[in-house]
Design goal:
heterodimer, A: alpha/beta, ABC transporter transmembrane region fold, 6-stranded mixed β-sheet, 4-stranded antiparallel β-sheet, B: alpha/beta, Rossmann fold, 3 domains, 10% strand, elongated, ABC_transporter-like_CS (chain A), transmembrane helix (chain A), ATP hydrolysis activity (chain A), ABC1_TM_dom (chain A), ATP-binding (chain A)
């Protein structure tokens, strides 16, 4: 809570100003009963119409003064609240932008969004409220208590005992309610997640005829949501009656004792009336307290969720003395690299070593889950190695600035991510200085230019949620163009050609040869792998074999099996022929 | 003239929505059936507590007048006892009204949720195909939550505010009609002021909501695209994009909050004004001997009792309206046409051999463009049928019709000689199992997800199926094995592994008809080999439909249906189709030739 509130510091002056304005309002309100007393005592009783006019006018004038300061308070409070929310969101977003992929794994997307929107709004509202009404209730109670003590100490003692006791009771109840509320929230999340799952997976549910099963599952959670909600709400609803009862009993006691005091001659009638009057006002203020504690405990939960993001330690940061050098060639060397995903036990990569010359093409083959994508992700430091080192142009990548490292890399991830915007925006993503010719060249090489030109808006076609829906293959080719337009020194293709038909893929691979970069291709297809300079064969995170197609055919049994499964027996027989093709092509 | 007509239209629209609101209220009322007795008790309690809360101060005043000011002693103890009783009854009735109301509200919400959920299962698939699930979901959760909160408090508040208002006016009128008229002077001021404010706030709130939505969208996009942003070092760019949206949100939020902040201030000033008016005007009246001073004192108290419920009502009105709008949206879904019921004499097939026939089937999703045109074929039980053709030719549509997610516009689909429309849906689908394009896994353990194929399968059977699907070895490598909990988005395991699980799930179902929709396109060749082997065992004695892009995986099919633009252009075995040298030949060679070179 403290951490999140510390962002209020710059607005301290404004907050004090807002409180001062609120105080003006409150004073007017407290002053009015005294004014009325004057009208009655000095005006009506003494038959002086002039006095009635005078004080009546003053009352109206001060009402407007209170109104004016209230309106001013609205502006200031809204200003502080909104500015505070703005700052919180900004800090959160900047923090999130510094997150590594591991950090992202610690929070779900949905929860990050809620933290940045709902939770911030919650804090913002609390600040807004506290500048306007929150202090009102405590002030009214304190003022009331002090005034009552001034009027008659013995009678006021009843209030001095009852009110703090009630406050303790209130806070205890609210704390208890907070835990109950969080249990309701949990259940609500479960109910909603079952609903969401059912909406998304309805086809499956229908096909498997699992309606009854799902409804049973839903009914159970829905029922316990109902009972939990009822429990907590009923619990909270006991507060007001208890509060009212205690205060009313206090009033009765004041009446009772007050009467005895009057009989004993130690109190005047007016004093008893005044203390009762203050007691009623305090009762009203106390019920506002319920509302305040509720808002406060909600804000506290939000503050905690916000703080969790803000205090997360980011695990991949630039070293202070990171070298400013940029990558020139693109030689890559893996030296005994082992890698384990954070919070996972098994190694995704184990003791992998190899080196690749600049401008070579490397194909990575292996089963699902053998570590192909993991290997690729280590190169741009999406994750850091657990053991060993990766060197590019002889420099450990941890000594490079992330920005410089990534600027030299064109990465086409497996999951197709395009941003909403035009195709041009997407291809030129992050490269403001790209000319149209360069963009079109990249698109041509990625085999997507013709498709784009078929759209009525060409490169200005809007894609994403509000625009054209692209097929998987089209998205793949646009992300390839996005990588190519940067003229990378290192190109990483993570199974990025899976949705392309064979002919397009061949053209693409042909076009890639004109780029002078080191290329890694994760692939399932032998036909693609055959064209590479080096093939890395992975199994269970280990580098099983490394070599050209011909070498592996000779030395590796597994590789031979894969070739056979895809190309048939012919594939094995054709070793000679394919070697000849290679030869012809190189010429 | 023109302006006049314009007003008319607005008036009409308002009337219409009022009518709609009343209808929605009536429907909610119907949900309360069985609880109406309780609701009556609650309303009764509210009346009692409202009366008691008006009575309390009156008795206190009387006590002060008679026993404090005049020092009378007779009957004081009994009056204190009465007072004690009133307050006890007040607290008790307040507690009970809330206690019961919460029960009523939550039970109602429960039954609305249940009905909605049941409705989902009765809606045709086209309903889900036409909507984004995320949007549907967020709307529903918000709407229901909104209704729930409104139910809990609003009903009681509205009733008690109205009662208090009436009571206060009544007492005031009986004390002094003239002073009441003076007090009521502030009512038009209040309405005018409220209107001025809400006219402004509504626009601002809408703007704020829109800006918040945009910001939300940006955050969502940025977070899900984080990998690309990192790879392209675009953190600074997105931060500056974010700051623009953040600034917009701040601006609209500032005005929305400022304007809405005026409301309590307005109420305050009106309260103070009425206080001053009563004191001033009342003073003059008293001066002229028209009223007593005591009346002024009571009046100031009741004037407060009068503006507070008015303010409450104005506040509650907005929440009530938004809750009603939410309820309407929920009802809209409840009113959507359900999937056609099974025919009355629909059959329950205990055993299916697996003979599938399409007879001149035509179908279109949008009634404009035909997805299937006059498709006919017959498969014998146990055959493996491969559907081949470029994307969008209707392969998936054939499967959708076979499972009766949609019904054909023309023609018939027969299974074992029965029209599928004569078979109960659950019976039809029970004999089928499938692996669809996008694997959908439920939040739960791997064991539960595989068992989804047949709920009464034992753990051993699940493991057996996983072994067959070659999923066992990767499952055992996971930290918790079969008890590993999968998240809803299936994160934690790869796409290929998800498919293995889906295959295991299909295996355990022991279907008569098996459907594989591009099931193997994401699995590496080595795993695929093993799966082909396992599938061969599974396909044995089962009718099997396979959709696959890679032609080498379907060469062993008994029958290949070649589709082109919604019609079957060729059918036969791999060898016979190659001999024909038609479209299949062309497709095959385009793909296979390339792989050799």
């Amino acid at each position: 809570m403290r951490h999140v509130l510390s962002y209020l510091k710059p607005y301290m002056k404004w907050m004090i100003f807002a409180w001062a304005l609120m105080l003006v309002e409150l004073l007017v309100e407290l002053w009015h009963p005294l004014l009325m007393e004057k009208i009655i005592d000095d005006g009506v009783m003494k038959n002086d119409l002039h006095v009635i006019w005078k004080w009546g006018a003053i009352m109206i004038a001060t009402s407007f003064l209170a109104f004016a300061s209230g309106i001013a308070n609205s502006f200031v409070a809204a200003y502080v609240g909104q500015q505070y929310g703005f700052d919180l969101r900004k800090h959160l977003f900047e923090k999130i932008q510094s997150f590594s992929l591991f950090n992202f794994g610690q929070f779900s997307t949905a929860s990050l969004i809620t933290r940045m929107t709902n939770d911030v709004t919650q804090m913002q509202n609390m600040v807004f409220m506290s500048l306007r009404i929150m202090l009102r209730a405590p002030l009214l109670i304190i003022f009331g208590m002090v005034m009552a003590l001034f009027v008659h100490v013995k009678l006021a003692l009843i209030l001095v005992i009852a009110v703090p006791l009630l406050l303790v009771f209130l806070i205890w109840m609210m704390n208890k309610a907070a835990t109950l509320f969080s249990r309701v929230q949990q259940m609500l999340d479960r109910v909603n997640s079952i609903m969401r799952e059912n909406i998304a997976g309805m086809r499956l549910i229908k096909a498997w005829v699992r309606s009854t099963y799902e409804q049973q599952r839903f009914t159970e959670t829905n029922e316990s949501l109902m009972t939990r909600t009822m429990t907590v709400l009923r619990f909270v609803e006991t507060i007001t009656p208890v509060l009212l009862f205690v205060m009313n009993v206090a009033i009765i006691m004041i009446l009772f004792i007050g009467r005895n005091e009057i009989h004993a001659g130690s109190a005047k009638a007016g004093e008893v009336v005044a203390v009762i009057n203050y007691a009623t006002r305090m009762t009203a203020a106390l019920s506002i307290f319920t509302f305040i504690t509720m808002a406060f405990s909600r804000a506290r939960a939000s503050a905690q969720r916000i703080a969790e993001v803000l205090i997360t330690t980011v695990d991949i940061i630039d070293e202070e003395q990171a070298e400013g050098t940029t990558i020139q060639k693109g030689e890559i060397q893996f030296d005994c690299v082992s890698f384990r995903y954070p919070e996972s036990e098994a190694l995704a990569l184990q003791d992998v070593s190899f080196s690749v010359q600049a401008h070579e093409t490397v194909a990575i083959l292996g089963e699902t889950g053998s570590g192909k994508s993991s290997l690729l992700q280590l190169i741009p430091r999406l994750y850091d190695v657990t053991e060993g080192t990766i060197k590019i142009d002889g420099i450990d990548i941890r000594h490079l600035k992330q920005e410089h490292l990534r600027a030299a890399i064109g990465f086409v991830p497996q999951d197709l991510l395009l941003f909403s915007g035009t195709i041009r925006d997407n291809i030129c993503f992050g490269m403001e200085t790209i000319s149209s010719e360069e963009m079109i060249q990249a698109a041509k090489d990625a085999q997507i230019h013709d498709t784009i030109m078929n759209f009525s808006q060409g490169y200005d076609t809007v894609v994403g949620q509000k625009g054209v829906t692209l097929s998987g293959g089209q998205k793949q080719r646009i992300s390839i163009a996005r990588a190519l337009v940067r003229k990378p020194k290192i190109l990483l293709l993570d199974d990025s050609t899976s949705a392309l038909d064979v002919k397009t893929e061949a053209n693409l691979l042909q076009a890639l040869k004109t780029y002078s970069c080191t290329t890694f291709i994760v692939t399932q297809k032998i036909s693609t792998a055959m064209e590479a300079d080096v093939i890395l064969l992975l199994k269970d995170g280990q580098l099983l074999a490394k070599g050209t197609h011909k070498e592996l055919l000779k030395t590796n049994e597994l590789y031979r099996k894969i070739v056979q499964s895809q190309l048939g027996k012919k594939g094995l027989d054709d070793v000679e022929t394919s070697a000849q093709y290679d030869y012809i092509e190189r010429k | 003239m023109l302006k006049h007509r314009h007003n008319m239209i607005i008036l009409k629209e308002n009337k219409r929505t009022v009518k709609e609101n009343i209808q929605t209220l009536k429907r909610i009322w119907r949900f309360l059936s069985g609880q109406k007795g309780r609701l009556a008790v609650v309303i009764w309690m509210v009346m009692i507590s409202s009366c008691l809360s008006l009575l309390g101060p009156y008795v206190v005043g009387k006590a002060v007048d008679t026993y404090i000011v005049t020092k009378q002693t007779e009957g004081f103890v009994s009056l204190v006892a009465t007072l004690l009783f009133i307050y006890l009854a007040l607290s008790l009735s307040t507690f009970l009204q809330n206690y019961w109301m919460i029960g009523i509200a939550q039970k109602t919400i429960y039954s609305i949720r249940t009905q909605l959920f049941r409705q989902f299962h009765q809606l045709p698939i086209s309903f889900f195909d036409q909507r984004k699930s995320g949007e549907l979901m967020s709307r529903l959760t918000n709407d229901i939550e909104n209704m729930s909160q409104t139910f809990n408090s609003t009903v009681i508040q509205v009733i008690s505010s109205t009662l208090t208002l009436i009571g206060a006016i009544f007492v005031m009128l009986s004390l002094s009609p003239l002073l009441t008229a003076v007090t009521l002077l502030i009512v038009p001021m209040m309405f005018g002021g409220m209107r001025w404010i809400t006219n402004r706030t509504q626009k601002r709130f809408k703007e704020q909501q829109q800006n918040l939505g945009e910001l939300n969208g940006l955050i969502e996009e940025v977070i899900s695209g984080q990998k690309v942003i990192k790879l392209f070092s675009q953190e600074k760019t997105v931060i500056s994009q974010f700051l623009i949206k953040n600034e917009q949100l701040k601006q609209s939020g500032f005005w929305a909050q400022t304007y809405s902040g005026f409301i309590p201030k307005l109420m305050n000033v009106l309260n103070n004004l009425s206080f001053a008016l009563i004191a001033g005007v009342g003073g003059i009246f008293a001066f002229k001997g028209m009223i007593s001073i005591g009346v002024i004192v009571i009046f100031t108290e009741y004037a407060r009792q009068f503006t507070r419920p008015l303010n409450d009502l104005a506040n509650q009105w907005n929440t009530l309206l938004s809750a009603l709008a939410g309820a309407e949206r929920v009802f809209e879904i409840l009113d959507k046409e359900k999937e056609e019921d099974d025919e009355a004499e629909a059959l329950d097939l205990p055993v299916v051999r697996g003979e599938v026939e399409f007879r001149h089937v035509s179908f279109s999703y949008d009634k404009k463009q035909e997805a299937l045109r006059d498709v006919s074929f017959l498969t014998s039980p146990g055959e493996t049928v491969a559907l081949v053709g470029p994307t969008g030719v209707g392969k998936t549509t054939i499967i959708q019709l076979l499972m009766r997610f949609y019904d054909p516009d023309r023609g018939h689909i027969l299974i074992d000689g029965y029209d599928v429309r004569q078979i109960k849906r659950f019976s039809l689908r029970q004999h089928m199992a499938f692996v669809l394009q996008d694997v959908f896994l439920f939040q739960g353990t791997i064991l539960e997800n595989i068992r989804y194929g047949r709920l009464d399968a034992t753990d051993e059977e699940v493991i057996e199926a996983a072994k067959w699907a070659n999923a066992h070895s990767f499952i055992m490598k996971l930290p918790n094995g079969y008890d590993t909990v999968l998240q809803q988005d299936g994160s934690g395991i790869s796409q290929g592994q998800k498919q293995l699980l889906a295959i295991a799930r299909a295996m355990i179902a022991r279907p008569s008809i098996l459907i594989l929709d591009e099931a193997t396109s994401n699995i590496d060749t080595m795993t695929e080999l093993a799966i082909q082997e396992a599938l061969a065992r599974l396909m044995n004695n089962r009718t099997c439909f396979v959709i696959a892009h890679r032609l080498n995986t379907i060469q062993n099919a008994d029958r290949i249906l070649v589709l082109r633009e919604g019609t079957v252009v060729e059918q036969g075995t791999h060898a016979s189709l190659l001999k024909e040298k038609g479209f299949y030949y062309e497709l095959y060679h385009r793909q296979f030739k390339k792989e050799i070179i």
